[in-house]
Amino acid sequence: MRKALHHSLRMVLSASMLMAFAAPLTAHAAEKIEVYDSYTSKSSNVQLYSVSQLDGNQFINAVIARQPDGTYSKWPEAFQHFRKSDSGNLQLTGMDDPEQAYVYDTQSQSIMRKSEYTLSPDGRWGVLERSRYERQPEGYIAKFNDQYLRNTVTGKVSVYYSTQQYYNARWINQHTLLESGYNEAARQNVISTYDPSTGKRQELLKGTLNNWNLTKGLLQYVKNEPKRLPWIYNLKDGSSRLVKDTRELEALFPAPPSSRPEVTFPKGMLLNDLPVTEMPITLAYEHNLNLDGKSVDVSTVFTKGGQEWIPVKPLAAALGWKIEVMNLSATGDPSAAYIYKVTNGSNHAVLTPVNSFNSASRLYIAPAQLKELGYKSIKVTPYVK
Fold first, then answer.
1. Nearest CA-CA partner of 249 in 226, 227, 228, 231
2. What's the pLDDT tens digit per position in 268-288?
3. Separation between Cα atoms, residue 168 and residue 74, nearest integer Å
4. Strands laid side by side in the 218-223 sheet
5. Are 304 and 357 contacting, i.e. CB atoms less than 8 angstroms apart?
6. Comparing C-alpha atoms, which of 105, 16, 30 is closest to residue 67?
7. CA 42, CA 48: separation in Å to the nearest integer?
8. Are residues 80 and 51 in contact, defined by beta-carbon separation less than 8 angstroms?
9. Contact at 8 Å (CB) between 72 and 266?
């Protein structure tokens, strides 16, 4: 479900109506504008660039738009860069916080707050990674990489894998993930496949994945051994062999073309001087929560380890809850990272790392604690297309 956001900065101008004025030039010399990524709209012919420029002692990042008439403008300061996602949209922020995850939707030509999943070829599943930090009993802060999986048919979202180690996954057929990373159980790097429809993981080989050519069904890897010789694995028949020479390696796994386009901007153009074009922002919601007949749209609801987690902030804002930060000593656990008291009228619930979930400074609550707040009927409904 999507709702329009009337932002305080008046971000209401449609992207299809982007109009800019030629920027005035200042007296001092401009440094070269570096281009990191670009996109051209097929319908409007507006060209977007993710750029940076050194202006005096200030390093400027910006998204700039070139109109068909040759004039330039820049997006609001909140959006300073983008990169193309596999969907064709432009990812404007990280995906760690679903309340602050923004993409430029190339079809509607507008900015959307939504989680950008990488869809499987058959469109049935989507995956994304979110990082979070968690205090450990030993007192240190550990970083976890949580892998989220969304069933696009049912709309349900779950964390299917979580690790403190390196992990990478990509789709290799209709809905199979090719995984590579450190396997804590095996205590070494492993390359495997994961089928979200069955939840089954199959180890292909022990080693580190360096490159791939999915068109030919080939993986380039090294075994977990001191020599680190380059091997080729054939996904079709499961065979492995050593690489013949560097020429074969370059032929089978050619280097991707540079994603940085060569662009010539008007001489002396300064990013600081470009006029700002306001952009429309649309809020996309994955789920609706109904508590005793009161309906609230939320950015996400997901399960982890069989437990369902619901974001606290949108519920508190919509339902008038009071949230208090309590003294950590009240937990009785010196290693606890936080303790919050959530009050709903005469009912309250105390949230700690034991009975809640925290990711990217966002607090999530479980249905059991919603019942402590006095709610009897709890219904979660995913939005699906």
1. 231
2. 999 999 999 999 899 999 999
3. 34
4. 167-171, 177-183, 188-195, 200-213, 218-223, 230-234, 240-242
5. yes
6. 16
7. 12
8. no
9. yes
Residues 6 or more apart in contact with residue 200 via CB below 8 angstroms: 194
Helix %, strand %, coil % for the chain, to 5? 10, 45, 45
pLDDT band at residue 335 under the 50/70/90 scheme = low
**Phi/psi-derived region of residue 217, left when phi > 0, alpha when psi is between -120 and 50, beta in every other case:** left
Question: What is the separation, in whole angstroms, between the first and last Cα of the chain?
Answer: 9
Contact 378, 366 (CB under 8 A): no
Separation CA 352–CA 255 (nearest Å): 48
Per-residue pLDDT tens over the stretch 353-381 = 999 999 988 999 999 999 999 999 999 99
Over the Cα atoms of the chain, what is R_g? Answer: 24
Burial, 150: exposed, middle or buried (Cβ in 10 Å; 0-12, 13-18, 19+)? buried
Per DSSP, 198 falls in state T
CA dist., res. 331 & res. 246, Å (int): 59
Average pLDDT over residues 55-65: 91
Percent of the chain's residues with pLDDT above 70: 90
Cα–Cα dist 342/190, whole Å: 43
> Helices in 141-258 by DSSP H: which ranges?
246-252
Phi, psi (degrees; rounded to nearest 5) at 68: -55, -25
